[in-house]
Amino acid sequence: MSIITKSIVQADREARYLSAGELSAIRVFYEGGVSRLSLATILIENEQKIIEKASLKFWERCPDTPSNSGNRTYRASCLRDQSWYIRLITYSIVVGDIEPLAEIGTVGVKEMYESLEIPLANLVEAIRCLKEVSLELFSSKDIAKVAPYFDYLIQSLIP
C-alpha cells in the first residue's frame, strides 16, 4: 500500500485530517517520484538485455535445470517468468513499496513452481542473476534504491 493510501486509511480510521507528519511523508514521496520513474524506466528499456544476460548467467550456474534441457516450452516459460519479475519490480519501484511483489509476485508462487517440478533453489538463483545484471545499469546511489526489491523477492522465495 502506498504511503498516500496508508496515510489516508489511517487518518480516516481515526476520523481525523492528515497530520503534518503524514503530509510531509507524502510530499517526500512525490518529490522522489521522478527518480522512481527514472529507475523503473531503466529496467523497462533494458528488459530484454537483462533477461538474455541473466539467463545465460543462470544456465552457467544451474546447467541441469528444466529451462536448459532443450525443451523450448520450458525455456520460453523461464524467459517469460523473468520478464514478469522485472515488471513486478518496476511496479514496486514506481509506488515505492513492496506491495506489488508481496501481493502479486510471491503469493502461491512456491506452490506453483513446486507443482511444476521447478526447483525453488533454481528460481531463487535466477532472480539473483536478474538482480546482478540489473544492478550493473545503476549508480551505487541508485543500487541502494533498487536492490531491496530484488532482495525482498529473493528472501520471499527461498525454500
The residue fraction in helices comes out at over 70%
Task: Give the CATH class of the largest domain.
Answer: Mainly Alpha
Distance between the termini: 26 Å
Question: What spatial form do the alpha-carbon principal axes imply?
Answer: elongated
Mean pLDDT: 92
CATH architectural designation of the largest domain: Orthogonal Bundle
Radius of gyration: 18 Å
For the record, the count of structural domains works out to: 2
Keywords:
single chain; 159 residues; mainly alpha; Globin-like; 9 helices
Q: Mind explaining what this structure looks like?
A:
- This protein has 2 domains: 1-31; 33-157, Phycocyanins (Globin-like, Orthogonal Bundle).
- With 159 residues, the chain is mainly α.
- The chain has helices at 3-13, 20-31, 33-45, 47-61, 72-95, 99-105, 109-115, 120-135, 140-157.
- The mean pLDDT is 92.
- It has 9 helices and no strands.
Produce the secondary structure layout.
Blueprint: H1 3-13, H2 20-31, H3 33-45, H4 47-61, H5 72-95, H6 99-105, H7 109-115, H8 120-135, H9 140-157
Helix pairs in contact: 3-5, 4-5, 4-8, 5-6, 8-9
Task: State the gist of this model.
With 159 residues, the protein is mostly helical.
